[in-house]
Amino acid sequence: MHDNCPVHTANIVRRWIEDQPQLEVLPWPSHSPDLNPIENVWANIVNVWEPEEERTRQQLLNHMMREWEVLRRKPQIIHTHVTSLSDRLRDVIANNGQWTKY
């Protein structure tokens, strides 16, 4: 399962998936909320990124690794993302599958 983000629907990705007969891509609404808690973890990492100062591939990698370690020392952040899933699902159902505050 993946959402309809342009990264996931790029020609190269679609061709790769087509070449994997063991994979079945589930239908997914175009404007569906992302319920995967890892997306919130990535948001934590991106939200403290300073694009004007961290521009090279190595700087971005260093940033990601540094922030990942910060999150590892704060397991309550990950726990909150995971335990909020039932609230997220409830909101998605109430919103008929559309975006929510999450």
Automatic annotation (TrEMBL):
Instruction: Report the residue ranges that make up the Tc1-like transposase DDE domain in this protein.
Output: 3-54
Could you state a single Gene Ontology molecular function term? nucleic acid binding
Q: Which domain of life is it from?
A: Eukaryota
| UniProt-recorded name of the protein | Tc1-like transposase DDE domain-containing protein
Q: Which organism is it from?
A: Petrolisthes cinctipes (Flat porcelain crab)
